[in-house]
Amino acid sequence: MRRRTTLPAAVAVLALATGCGAADMTKQASPFANAGGTKSVTLSVQSWVGAQSNVAVAQYILEHKLGYRVDTVQVDEVPAWDALSQGRVDALLEDWGHPDQEKRYVADKKTITPGGDLGVTGHIGWFVPTYLAKEHPDITDWRNLDKYASLFRTAESGGKGQLMDGSPSYVTNDKALVKNLKLDYQVVFAGSEAAQITQMKQFAKEKKPFLTYWYSPQWLFEKVPMTEVKLPPYKEGCDADPAKVACSYPHTPLQKYLNTDFAKTGGKAAAFLKRFRWTTEDQNEVSLMIADRKMDPQDAAKKWVDGHPDVWKKWLS
Asked: CB of 6 within 8 A of CB of 73?
């Protein structure tokens, strides 16, 4: 994993496409920061393709419609808040909920300002391929998972069923859930979203069973249909203590955040990013082009922008 490395846009895109580790930008300024007379914006890119799609479209419009120079840097979820607070990046376009950071930086320090809803609702859950759910309909109830644990055993799961996760840096309660629900499973990290997708596509190609941590919105559902396993219902506060979580993940309206100084002085760029709001379908359309069709993110962004002027022109006024 690379650390403290400034990634220009093209390299950041390559890192995301190949599942490379995220750079730690908390101690490093953008190469465009404080450049005299330069209209520049630095956007944080999270390490999943949906977040990359947000940034690709925002970057394209900022550069081609508003005349800004845009830098993109890849930062893990929690360090992204530190970088945003310090002004190392100007905006974070997809946050899945970090209440501790919100309290520290938004409520207390006031160095970060909410940028509004992204327009997309995120949900994390456990999923099995739909072909498996059709074969064993009761497998979609967590109380029956142990009955099928042997189907999910792998060399990495130590004789237990494998629950496949992506990157250890992602928001996950899975180890606590396995322990607290007393399930005969082992959480195994694929290492990145890209590695996890590769494994799921291979399993699906061979029609093999798998149980995986996954999330929506996500373009892969169109290629590999999956059915969610019902965990104990989510109730407000049931995940307050990470060690005691025994409930499902919430449905989370995804949020944008801006550095407070940038929110006040960022002019048209800040106003545009506050108004940036699209649908799950919009995001998945771009994500599919980037991840499945292997298009350059800026080419995918251009294609989407060319086809949806009725959506993005509202963000400029």
From this structure: yes
Closest CA to 29 of 113, 85, 78, 89: 89
- Quote the CA–CA distance of 14 and 7 in Å, as a whole number: 10
Q: Per-residue pLDDT averaged across 163-180, rounded?
A: 93
Task: Report d(CA 161, CA 186) in Å as an integer.
Answer: 6
What is the average pLDDT score of the chain? Answer: 89
What length does the chain have? 317
Distance from C-alpha of 185 to C-alpha of 174, rounded to nearest angstrom: 10
pTM to 2 decimals? 0.77
Q: Is 256 exposed, middle or buried (0-12, 13-18, 19+ CB in 10 A)?
A: buried
Average pLDDT value for residue range 266-285: 97
Peptide bond into 242 cis (omega under 30): no
Distance CA 205, CA 224 (A): 9
Output the DSSP codes for 169-207: TS---HHHHHHHTT-SEEEEE-SSHHHHHHHHHHHHHTT
67 dihedral zone (left: phi>0; alpha: psi -120 to 50; beta): left
pLDDT of residue 36: 41
212 vs 5, residue with greater confidence: 212
Alpha carbons 59 and 13: distance in angstroms, whole number: 12
Tokens of 226: 């999956």
CA end-to-end span of the chain: 41
Question: Is residue 147 within 8 Å of residue 176, measured between CB atoms?
Answer: no
Question: Comparing C-alpha atoms, which of 292, 121, 164, 118 is closest to residue 219?
Answer: 292
CB-facing half-sphere around the CA of 65: CA atoms within 13 A? 20
> For position 38, what pLDDT does the model report?
59
Q: Cα–Cα distances in Å, from 136 out to 139, 153, 225, 284, 312? A: 6, 17, 15, 29, 44
Whether residue 239 contacts residue 173, with contact meaning beta carbons closer than 8 Å, is answered with yes
